[in-house]
Design a protein that fits this description.
363 residues; alpha+beta; Thrombin, subunit H; 6-stranded antiparallel barrel; 6-stranded antiparallel beta barrel; 8 helices; 23 strands; 21% helix
Length: 363
């Protein structure tokens, strides 16, 4: 009887130990599965994240803070980064609005050394400028990357000085939220330009302007330029593609400006009904988009093409022209001397003409 009781106890113990082992194994597997894999539509998606410290190390000492002085008084600050150096100078990329109207700028490096810089050139529409500093002050040159293989969801980070020196070279991390966003901005008048940009959810704050947008390899893929600000909006920052800036750095380094083309017309949007009424122009209700010719410069390309007051431009080449800002955006992709195909509506009929672009002396 005692042997039978001992056998029963032994069997129960074996069962409990086995069940406990299975529980531990199952729990271990559950924890391991939870930490390392996510099951999505019968596919295993690995999650790995070792941080971006190595990428930050590659760029950090190439980033600078730029101080803007107007009438010899401090007016504000932004960010920038060294993209090149030669035997005498280091060259810094930043936003045009960071150095705009400055009679003096200084550049602060990560070792807190502050030197005076010289603005070589820039463009208000591109919102890019080049600043030169003595090469001895340069600590590191940033590695320039590419956006050709950029994908939604890629990890990125921004480096800059939000608010000012107190938060110098702050790192904010996020993902690519959109590629080739077209954002309407005000440059010389209200909503007069369309900027093509990368949208990110990394924090972009005042003072970040001009700083680099960097990929997980530590390569610069953009120049942080602006954010949408509203009580109902969070995490919508925008960066200029690095290629769009690098296409013009040689022009700015030579202390020249970008030569912009000119159609030779004054115009307004089809939605500006009061202005059209003032000029005695009446449009059909069927016309929902485009720009309206108000006047034509006689000896300009538009004047020679046969365009006249009241014509509604709807296309340049194959690009649909929705408003003034987009017309300028498309037009500035061409060069002075180029001939463009232009589609317009006159008296309810669609027509086409060719316009040879001349130099815009106002830019």
């Amino acid at each position: 009887m005692r042997e039978k009781f001992i056998n029963i106890v032994f069997i129960v113990l074996i069962f409990l130990i086995g069940a406990g082992s299975m529980y531990v194994v199952n729990q271990t597997l559950l924890v391991e599965d939870k930490d390392t894999k996510v099951i999505t539509e019968n596919r295993n998606v690995s999650i790995t994240d070792n941080g971006i410290a190595e990428a930050v190390d590659k760029i950090y000492d190439a980033v600078v803070m730029i101080k803007n002085y107007q009438n010899n008084r401090y007016a504000g600050c932004g960010s920038g980064f060294v993209y090149k150096k030669d035997d005498k100078y280091g060259y810094i990329l930043t936003n045009y609005h960071v150095i705009e109207n400055a009679n003096k700028i200084t550049v602060v490096f990560s070792n807190e050394e502050e030197v005076e810089g010289k603005v070589l050139g820039g463009d208000v529409y591109l919102d890019v400028a080049v600043v030169r500093v003595p090469v001895a002050s340069v600590l590191k040159v940033a590695e320039i990357g590419s956006t050709e293989e950029l994908r939604l969801g890629d990890t990125i980070f921004a480096v800059g000085s939000p608010v000012g020196i107190e938060y110098y070279n702050t790192i904010t991390r996020g993902t690519v939220s959109g590629i080739d966003r077209k954002i309407t901005v005000s440059v010389k008048s209200t909503d007069d330009w369309v900027m093509k940009a990368i949208q990110v959810d990394a924090a972009i704050n005042p003072g970040n302007s001009g700083g680099p947008l960097v990929n997980s390899n530590g390569e610069v893929i953009g120049i942080n330029s602006m954010k949408l600000v509203d009580s109902s909006i969070e995490g919508m920052g925008f960066s200029i593609k690095i290629e769009d800036a690098m296409n013009y750095v040689s022009v700015f380094e030579s202390e020249k400006s970008i030569e912009r083309p000119l159609l030779g017309i004054t115009l307004t949007n089809v939605t500006e009904t009061m202005l059209l009424y003032r000029y005695g122009i009446t449009l059909s209700d069927d016309i929902e988009y485009g720009v309206v010719v108000i006047s034509v410069v006689e000896d300009s390309g538009a004047g020679k093409s046969g365009l006249k007051k009241g014509d509604v431009i709807t296309k340049i080449g194959d690009e649909k022209i929705t408003n003034q800002a987009y017309l300028k955006y498309v037009l500035y992709d061409y060069k002075v001397g180029d001939t463009v195909d232009l589609t317009y509506i006159r008296d309810g009929k669609e027509k086409t003409t060719k316009v040879t672009l001349t130099k815009n002396d106002e830019e």
